[in-house]
Amino acid sequence: MMLPVALTCGEPAGIGPEIAAKAWDALRTRLPFFYIGDPRHLPSGTPVTEIADPMEALTACKRALPVLTHRFPEHAHPGVPSPANAAQVIEVIARGVDLVQRGSAAALCTAPIHKKALKDGAGFAYPGHTEYLAALAGVERVVMMLACEGLRVVPATIHIALSDVPRALTPDLLRDTLRLTHRALQSDFGIEAPRIAVAGLNPHAGEGGAMGREEIELITPVLEALRAEGLDLKGPASADTMFHAAARRNYDVAVAMYHDQALIPIKTIGFDTGVNVTLGLPFIRTSPDHGTAFDIAGQGQADPTSLIEALLQADRMARFRAQADA
């Protein structure tokens, strides 16, 4: 029997509670999951069943949204995060990690947080969700993947200025990113022999050194060493030719050198359906590929599609990992 997926509440003043309720309505007979948070923050009229154990979600999810209650000091006011609630947002994430690590949930799906609200209200010391999860798991290196139907992308460097990318892009970082990606595609996506396309850093992949030498001096040596280990790596390739439909059929994931090089194509192809996946953790973690959307919170306008896809992706990955570990 598969375990339910744990969904953390995220920032309760954002769209998280609304899309959680909508996701339950869409998935109640397809995928059991439970919400960790304060039931008072969910939209009025949401059918709720408070549970004491995650396994109760397997049956409760068909009739109501199962909630593993975590009380917050204040009600949520849509669009206006409360500093008094910040510590509980952080605690809910830690509670979700503990549940998946203890084997009480199949995977962790996280609703969006607002980093400034957590820093202002509780001194949150991490750049984001991913770094906090890595710290909780005791993992030094993790990889961010964005996935939608027809495309998976991994940026080697993430939330840094473009001017800082050449310094941050080291052989160790690129090597670790490619190895973690390769292993995750095998264990969590069921791809026995992953095909990985690797972008160059510069226009036209440097054009033989005329537009930069990172491809010659850094990227190619790393790829050659990893090919000797048995990884199927293509590139470094010119990023502007990697993402049309015919090219995408030739690889299972594209590894880019910086944030926008990876995220522009996936948000063009699957803006509403993209899922954020963290690779390299000892548990499965997914998240919708959007933020708290304070501007529309509480108005009934939020689209739950990305969260629905994130929950389904978490379940699929957990099943593949269970098979790989069997």
Report on the structure:
The protein is an alpha/beta fold. It folds into 2 domains: 1-142 and 274-326, Isopropylmalate Dehydrogenase; 150-269, Isopropylmalate Dehydrogenase (3-Layer(aba) Sandwich). It is 38% helix and 17% strand. It contains 11 helices and 12 strands. It has helices at residues 16-27, 57-60, 86-101, 115-122, 129-137, 165-168, 171-189, 214-228, 245-248, 259-269, 305-325, and strands at residues 5-8, 33-37, 48-51, 65-69, 107-110, 143-148, 151-155, 195-199, 232-237, 253-256, 275-279, 285-288. The chain has a 12-stranded mixed sheet with strand order 3-4-2-1-5-12-11-6-7-10-8-9, with helices on both faces. β11 and β12 (285-288) form a beta hairpin. The longest helix has 21 residues, at 305-325. The radius of gyration is 20 Å and the shape is globular. It starts with a strand and ends with a helix. The relative contact order is 0.17. The mean pLDDT is 95.
